Amino acid sequence: MSIDAKKLAFAGSILLTTLGRGGAAGAQVGDSAREAAPVRSPARAVRAERAERAPVIDGDDRDAVWRAAMPLGAFRVFDPTEDGEPTLRTEARLAFDARHVYVFVRAFDPHPDSIVSRLSRRDVRTPSDQIKVMLDSYHDRRTAYEFAVNPAGVKRDYYAYDDGVEDVTWDAVWDVATRVDSLGWTAEFRIPLSQLRFPRAGAHTFGVMVTRDVARTNERYSWPVYRRSRPGLPSQFADVAGFEGLGASGRLEAMPHVVATNRSATRPDGFARTQRQDLGADLKVGLGSNLTLDATVNPDFGQVEADPATVNLTAFETFFDERRPFFQEGTGIFSFGADATRLFYSRRIGRAPQLAALAPTDADVPGATTILGAGKLTGRVGNGLSVGALGAATGRERAGGATVEPAAAYSAARVQQDLRGGESGIGAMFTGVRRSLDAADAPYLRDEAYAGGVDLRHRFAGPFGGRYRLAASLAGSVVRGSAQSIARTQRSAVHYYQRPDAGLTYDSTRTALGGTALDLSASEVAGTWRFDASYSRLSAGFETNDLGFLSRADMQTASAGVRAVSSRPRAFWRNANASFDVVTQYTARGTPIASTVELAGYAQFASGAYLSADLWTDNAGAVYCDRCARGGPALRLSPATSLLINVSRDDRKRVVPYFAAIYTVGDGGRSTLWRVRPLVTLRPASNVNAQIGARYQRNRDATQWYANVTSGGTPRWLFARLDQHLLSFLGTLDVTATPTLSLQLYAEPFVSAGKYDDVRTLADPRARRYDDRFTPFPRTTEGFNSKQFNSTAVLRWEYRPGSTLFVVWSQGREQLDRDPGSFEAARDYRNLFGARPDNTLAVKLAYWIGR
């Protein structure tokens, strides 16, 4: 069989631990607080102190407001034990004035020299001690602004939505000072109200939670107590009253930038060098106290790291995460239904030109489409109503006189209404794309594409005290264009209308195509035993790839699973869970196309090390792959079994080894795949973090699609046996001089080579016996040898709050024409580094102007 692409993608994208370990804290300074008896304050209904005089943000608690503010000392352990007694004492105080919220946290520690403090870039989580302040300024129990700092002064901030989903790309402009003294360490926060959103009112109650991480004991504390056995995060915050006379939450920020770029790229006749200077700007405007308008003109994404190297032998597009800051921030509001990117996938805006094949071979095709401008409006209006709107325009891209991407306009709109205090909700979403096509483009691309839908969620307490969640969504789509472009859409891997046994009507005269998508799910999201069940159906004509991401249509999926979660340390583990899942898939007309039975387990041990194992079987019973023949008849699949293992040492150590391995066997032993991924994280100093890793894969696939041909007037769907090697290496180095000055290095050389033999054509594709499905088809085979190298060096200096200087150097190498079908690691890597490189040097200066 062909190994299931989705499982391979999952196994190939294992999350590698990148956290750092802290060394000793910095030098001690004078005492700033007196040791006092523990203070236990109520977990709910406290008041913030109004500051008649703003405190000096220096990590010292001798300001008058801190002497007057109510101490909050009832911190409790939430990890590893829920509602446990903390080893160390913590106190917090809250204050405000017309422009800021102030928070002072004293983290008592009898051994200040053992406080773990590591330097890193902003927004990079290291295994340090940490204090985090979370504010639900809307007081909707669904959203929160999070501000975290470690003893070295490294800041992180997030926006939480949907009662706990964190948007790590959200950035605010705020101040914090930390200090280590003989009593432990302190953190003093100043958070401008301009960075928050809250309704218009004379007095406010905020939801608040403060957490503390103690790295050396591996404990986490919170006030009020956070119960991991319950769903949600903001819904567990304490109510803090007394926020009266707050100034308007207005926000006006501008960030003009200038970019100078020098690029040299290889061409058949040598090198082509280009130099350019660009001006652009980002603008952020607070519209009242609830809405934010973000706009960008001629944005630059030069500091964004490269996508990982890959060779895709499937019929489906490879999914890459969004990495561009403008599009990352606030994306949570544009997620829809069970599949967050099905309707909106922001990487479609500014994508690589789709018609690069029309350019002359010696033309320099741009790597991305120019974004002329983009804007988005996000926020909350009225009582629990969230809104989001985005618009963007891209320019026409030409290469060698040919249009490789037409000008286009993109739009997306989203509304969500919370009900029952956020426990339920209903939402709607709409997306649209319009392209400016000419006679040369029209046969290939769609003129316009629209999609929209509604989604609902409902959370409630069950009869046995559990927490249950129901969700549903219904979406529709329509695309329009020339008959040629809609015919191409029908024949694409997303649809394959031309399949002879699909029961679909392929119509080459169509100028529009439409379809629907339905998703239903139910789950228990709290307690030791949890379950989930879901059903989805995508009709054959559903198409969202103009502004969304959709691998395939014409599919029904039904799944059910049960999970056991341990919320308290037991025997030898700190945290553990186990799950059992069953997934079946059918075409919209009912042909079974996939089945999976999966058993998985995870354990984090008392030492901090962890182990996970995942065992699953695909294609039990009669299952037919309707995509394997790339538009041909459905092919019966033989069972395949896979085992995936991940193991890592405690990530607080200076040397953290990590190892992942997967093994798959299918087609009655004819097909096998195994992959190993060793990686080690090194922390030789408190401000240095390095990773060195490798990946080796050997894939012997007896049922790899090879080609579709016509022989003697008869269509033939050819398959072959593939023998593939893949070897790649990964190296990263982060050096942080100060919390505002850092250097980041990344390099990934990649080689994948494969050869084909034993070419066969389909004979009886639905035969029960594997050998009866094919018949030999003599054909000379060709292999491949794909080599890539991506590297980036980024120097980042935040020379003043919100203002940043980037110096970026990147190099890319690619070689496809040497030694196809043959793999020799030493030779291939020698040839890769002998290939001509593409080099880019960019300097970006951005200056933040705001109030």
TrEMBL record:
GO terms (BP aspect): carbohydrate catabolic process
Record CDD domains: CBM9_like_2
Pfam families in UniProt: CBM9_1 (PF06452), DUF5916 (PF19313)
Carbohydrate-binding domain ranges (all copies): 57-210
Family matches, as SUPFAM superfamilies: CBD9-like (SSF49344)
GO molecular function: carbohydrate binding; hydrolase activity, hydrolyzing O-glycosyl compounds
Domain of life: Bacteria
Coiled coil regions, renumbered to chain: none
TM stretches of this protein: none
Every DUF5916 domain range: 251-399, 511-849
Protein's name according to its UniProt entry: Membrane associated hydrolase
Protein source organism: Gemmatirosa kalamazoonensis
Lineage of origin: Bacteria, Pseudomonadati, Gemmatimonadota, Gemmatimonadia, Gemmatimonadales
